[in-house]
Amino acid sequence: MKTFLNLKQCLILFAAVFSLTSCLKSDDPDFQIVAGGYVNQKVTEISGGEGEDVKIESEFTPVVLVQGNEQIANCTASGSKSMLLGKTNDYGTAWKTISATPFEELPISTYTITGVNAEGKSASTYASFSPTQGMKNKLKGDIDYNNGVLIFTFNKVENATAYLVIAKSSSNATYFESFEIKGYTETEAKIGEELKLEESSIASKITVPGTYRITLAAVISSSNGMVYQENDKYVSYTKE
User: Fold this and answer.
1) Helix extents (H) in the chain
2) 174 Cβ contact list (under 8 Å, min separation 6)
3) Per residue in 51-100, pLDDT tens?
4) Which of 26-40, 86-100, 104-118 has the highest mean pLDDT?
5) What are phi and psi of 26, to 5 degrees?
6) Which segments of 48-203 does DSSP mark as H helices, in order?
7) Which terminus of the chain, N or C, has fewer Cβ atoms within 10 Å?
8) How far is Cα 40 from Cα 61, in angstroms, rounded to an integer?
9) In the 8-state DSSP scheme, what is residue 205?
10) CB-CB contact of 98 with 66 (8 Å)
11) How does residue 20 score in pLDDT terms, banded at 50, 70 and 90?
12) Is the Cβ–Cβ distance between 144 and 235 less than 8 Å?
């Protein structure tokens, strides 16, 4: 899928810049951090009475990933809503949102991110959110895995610019921590039609052995950032 900008790739490029800076300077570079983010949209359908339309309610939660050019001993985020960050690994070169207060409307908000290294030196950056539209209905695609074949369908999600098949190591893993198996434009997603992926296509995208939840997602990707919605249904898959 050519039109979708992968935020994880952007942060990998930032990390590469850190590495290049370290090589070019004769002395140790200053402690630095970078942050990227997206808005997670949770859609709830509320059934009305007989003859009434289903009501849609959404919560919008900012999600941040912070990376440093060295170990981050502590990392905090401050903004208009509370956000708690935690390490993505034991070493602590990356931190992520582990809980945040959601917005009832699309967030127009900036969080100040402050990291402290093992020597007590601090560095700051910002994560800004300014999406102009959210998704107007719930992603409810079917998904099944049988005899080495993943079978799934996407329903039409209004305003979505792309549809994804992803693999997550746990239910609370963020998009940043997932493996993107395949991305589709709306035309490629063949809304309502059955799509298939062979096991070899899945295994080739997952680089770390383990058991994963494979599920579907819909996104809005624009110059104002990314809004992400995940499917409720998933299947289990083990990468040997």
Assistant:
1) 7-24, 186-189, 199-203
2) 40, 63, 65, 96, 97
3) 677 889 999 999 999 999 999 999 999 999 999 999 988 888 899 999 99
4) 104-118
5) -75, -30
6) 186-189, 199-203
7) C
8) 5
9) T
10) no
11) very low
12) yes
Alpha-carbon distance of 29 to 77, in angstroms, equals 24
pLDDT, residue 28, reads 59
Segment 220-228 shows an average pLDDT of 92
Tokens in use for 154?
Answer: 């996407």
What are 220's two structure tokens? 């809005």
Closest CA to 215 of 162, 164, 176: 164
Largest CA distance in the chain: 73
Q: Which two tokens stand for residue 111?
A: 């969080």
pLDDT at residue number 4? 40
- Count of other CB atoms within 10 angstroms of residue 202: 22
56 in Cβ contact with 45 (< 8 Å): yes
**How are beta strands 33-46 and 225-239 bridged, if at all?**
parallel
Contact 114, 133 (CB under 8 A): no
Angle, CA 174 vertex, CA 90 and CA 108 arms, to 5°? 120
Question: Which residue is it, tokens 């695609």?
Answer: 141
Counting every residue, how long is the chain? 240
Q: Model-level pTM?
A: 0.88
Band (pLDDT 50/70/90 cuts) for residue 192 is very high
Q: Copy the structure tokens of residue 34.
A: 């970078």
